Every structure is written in C-alpha cells, then in structure tokens.
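Handoff note, outgoing to incoming analyst
You'll be picking up this chain. Sequence as last confirmed:
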Amino acid sequence: MAFELILPKDKKTISNTEYAFFVGHASNNESITINDEKVFTAQNGAFAHSVKLRNGENRIAVKSSYDFNPKIYKIYKNEIKNIYKPKLVELTPALYKVLKDNTPLRKTPEDYGMNRMSHLFEGTKLIVDGEKNGFYRVFLSKNKTGWVAKDSVEAIPEEENAPKFITMKSETFKNASIHTLEFTEKLPYTIDENSDEILFKVYNPQAAEDSVYTVNIKKPQKYFYKTVSSNGTYVFKVNALPYVENALEGLNIFVDPGHGGTELGAIGCLGDKEKDINLKIALELKNLLELMGANVYMSREVDGFVSLDDRVKMARENGSNIFVSIHLNSIPDIKMDIHKNRGTSVYYYNPNSKQLAESVLDSITTGINTRNDGVRTASFAVIRPTDYVGILVETAYMTNPLDSVLYRGENFPRETAKAISEGILNYVNPCK
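Most recent structure output, in case you need it:
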C-alpha cells in the first residue's frame, strides 16, 4: 500500500499563502519525495513537508519509492497586491452610545490581537472624533483615546449637561476587595496593570478633557477580577484565589476540551482528529483533579459542538476559579522545521494567568518530555475573561511527525493530564 496524503485534500487548489503544506503517512520502508526533495518520515510513517509557492500555477510532484508515477498537485497562488492602508478621517466630536454589553474598547482600530482595553456596557456614552478602518476613535481624555467598531455604536443627540460624579468607595475583605464608582450615566472605563497594582479608570470627557477617576488596587499574589455596571454605577471586584489547605480541596476548575462535533480541530499526519485527543486528555484530567479534591466542570464530556460563548458562560455559571482549555497545535502555512515546530506551548491573555501558564508548561515538558515551545499571549475568546485564571494548553503538534509518535501513544492522554494536574497543583499550592 502506497502513502496517503491528508493535506492538501484536493489536487487542484487556489492559495493565498506563501507555502503549501503536505501532511500524510507512508508505508513501512516507503520513501517519499516532494519535488525531488526527500521528506523525513517518522517511525510510524508520519510525514509533513512545506513547499514555497510562487505567484501563479505551481506544479508539485509527490513521489513514492513504491510507484514511479508521481501524484501531481496544482496549486495556484494569487498574487498579493499592495494592500490599501486606510487613513484616519478627523470628525467633528459627537456623542454616541454603545448598543450592547461586552463591546470591546480597543487600543488600535483592528479587530484582532492583544489590543482590548475593556469591554463596555450597553448604553455607555462616548465622544467620537475620528474614523479609520471600520472603527470610530473614542476621546477618553487629553492623553488617551480608544477605538470601537462602527457597527457597535450609534449617534445620539448632544446633551446640555455632562454626566456627574456621585461617589466613590472601597471595601476590603479577607479574600476580596470591592470598589464602587457612581455616576449619573454610563461612561467608558479601562483596566490597566503594572507589577504591583490594578488600575481601574472611568473617563468623563463630556465634563472635562482631564476628568479621569482612578482606583489603584494592590494586586493579590494570585487573583481574578470582574466589572459589573448598573446605570452609572460601576462595581469592580478583585478576588484572591481561594486559600487551599489540602491539594486542590474545594477549588472550582473548568476543563474545556477544544473543538467537538462538526468542529474537528487539526487533522494529524495519520488522520487523527484533534477533537478526539483533546477529549481523552480532558476526561483523564477531570478524574485526577477530582481525586485532588477540586470541583470539576466541563464544557463537554462527549463528542459534541459547544460554542465559544457557551464555554465561557458555563465556566462563569459554575463559579470557576481556574479555566483550562485543552488543544493540540498545528503548523501554519510557513516553512516547516520539524525540530522547531513541535512540542508544548501554553497561552494566556490576562496577566493574572501568566504564573499558571508557566507552571503548567514546566510540568508538561518535564513530565512527558515534550519540547518547550514557550508561554505565549493570545486573544483567544475562552481565556479573555478576567473573572477566572485562564490558560489554553497546546499539548503537542498534530501535524508534526515526531509529535505524532507521542500523541498516538497509549499513555499520552493519561500522562499529559497528570502533568497538567501537577502544574495546577504547583501553582495553587507550591509547597505541597
């Protein structure tokens, strides 16, 4: 039996990427060449190889030592033309309001990346004074601006009287602090962090260009926080991670197996589906965490589709302190290096989750001997919320032949789950 290609799926395709990616598996002792370049094959037959594309039609020949007639793939690469760069249009300052809760206020006029400053509430009043790339520029103060998507706000009539500040107070408890700022209207706010403090700021530019109300909150060692609003009242609550005396006793942990149902995730060199491996690891992790005393909740325990919003909603409804999303990685359309594009990486979004990400990564790479692919930041929907400590674990690369030997091993789900659970324990209770 000759080799099987998993990717590309079609022999004739159109691409906008710089490289074409060939993923598949060969039979015993079968040698594979792609455009006369010999391809590395792992001990289980898995292989992956990238081919640089030129503009126009690319003819790529995949040949097996078992068959002198190569398989020909034709990939047409579209020429990337100069991308239009939108220009800033200055606007006469006007009053707008936010149309729905959870509207991102961004640092830049782009709908991606680590550029979120806060999530605004429905009815928040904004001063708009510019437009660029489908976004409005929001005037916050003389030294600060933000951006909101144009379709997330609407213009409203100018008001004679600016919103007014009413009161501000802070209360401190054993494991939490609550900070309340009250205004007559909903106003824009931002949340910043430095090494020691969380800075919660509310802006009232209708009153004055330097009208900024700031609460400086000393950060607990391990923490999460949440902002709620009713009319013009903002309540900002910072919680220290609950003290745990024995293992993970009483801690609420949400385990999220990535993908599911019609959402397959990445496909491996031998045809494995990421969603299935994610679930196996997650179920093992659930059992181990429960043995440590944690209350464990899951986004799915069977093969079914769950939306990103529902995963976050379930975690919040169960009062989760820690959120762990389980995935396997895939190599993007770049020049592949099988020795570099492999191993375990752990992602976080909010600074409060970095320490957990580091602990889990160290535990996995030590426990199952994967390559350390680093702790990284990313704007993944399930780890953006601030009201839990959230990480996304890429345990190995689905499309790396060397990693495929690892994740296809019988003990991989159990050993990976064990390493993740120990990483969580070392974060929560480093002395245990």
